[in-house]
């Protein structure tokens, strides 16, 4: 799973026993050599799909990590791109890998559940971050994204179809989820990372409630499952133009993460 440049088992153990923020600070120098980084194939397919919807002026990479998603934004945004993450270590690596060409790039250390922006963006993307949020936190997260988008702006992220119940992949995800729950029951601080595939129906309901108009775009590069459904979809949630400032959904209070 890991390249020779990736973290050693002892390093992973130390990271897993830290908080999410501290764990990613420690992992940052080797993160791009782990399977946790979104693959180039998914990033490229997302960029192709977004080109058909753009171009955009200002883009935001939500939970940007080491900045892989910033490369996607740089391909479809004309003026500026911003990465936001709460790990100083990940942001440090992201700054180092930013090239001199393309739109103006900026980096902000902040909690995605309390974004320090007004409605300044035409596009928000996120890659592989939702496993770090508890289900009850998603409504507040989506409301935050809605708030920082201009009317007509879009929130886009790829989602892999969940594995078939009873399959080996499904069993492995359940096993990982169980290990994390046991870890958080016996060790503090908690490390929130539950990577079971998100269900499209649940995602769509929460995005609808946040005031978005939602579309699902198949990414044909990844083919289809035996039942004919796409293996990977790009979720594109639009903030309707008619929702002017102060007329969108009621704000959801953002509270600090409680220990589980």
From TrEMBL:
All copies of domain Methyltransferase, residue ranges: 60-153
The keyword Transferase is assigned to this record: yes
Secretion signal span: none
Gene3D superfamilies in UniProt: Vaccinia Virus protein VP39 (3.40.50.150)
Keywords assigned: Methyltransferase, Transferase
Region: Disordered, residue numbers: 238-260
Claim: Ion transport is one of the keywords in the record: no
GO process terms (BP): methylation
Any one Gene Ontology molecular-function term assigned to this protein's record: methyltransferase activity
Top-level taxonomic group: Bacteria
Pfam families: Methyltransf_25
Protein name, entry field: Class I SAM-dependent methyltransferase
Species name: Streptomyces hirsutus
């Amino acid at each position: 799973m890991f390249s020779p440049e990736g973290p050693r088992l002892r390093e992973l153990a130390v990271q897993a026993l830290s908080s999410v923020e501290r764990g990613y600070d420690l992992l940052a120098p080797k993160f791009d050599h782990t399977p946790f980084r979104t693959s180039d194939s998914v990033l490229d397919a997302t960029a192709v799909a977004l080109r058909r919807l753009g171009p955009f002026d200002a883009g935001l990479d939500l939970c940007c990590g080491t900045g892989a998603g910033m490369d996607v934004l740089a391909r479809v945004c004309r003026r500026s791109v911003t990465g936001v993450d709460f790990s100083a270590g990940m942001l440090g690596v992201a700054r180092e890998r930013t090239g001199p060409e393309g739109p103006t790039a900026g980096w902000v250390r902040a909690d995605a559940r309390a974004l320090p922006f007004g409605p300044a963006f035409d596009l928000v993307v996120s890659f592989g971050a939702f496993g770090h949020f508890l289900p009850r936190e998603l409504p507040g997260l989506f409301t935050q994204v809605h708030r920082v988008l201009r009317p007509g702006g879009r929130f886009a992220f790829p989602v892999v179809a969940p594995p078939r119940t009873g399959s080996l992949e499904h069993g492995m995800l359940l096993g990982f989820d169980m290990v994390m729950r046991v870890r958080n029951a016996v060790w503090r601080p908690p490390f929130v990372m539950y990577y079971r595939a998100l269900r499209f129906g649940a995602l769509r309901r929460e995005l609808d409630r946040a005031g978005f108009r939602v579309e699902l775009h198949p990414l044909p590069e990844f083919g289809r499952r035996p039942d004919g459904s796409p293996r990977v979809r790009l979720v594109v949630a639009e903030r309707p133009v008619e929702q002017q400032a102060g007329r969108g959904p009621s704000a959801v209070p953002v509270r600090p993460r409680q220990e589980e």
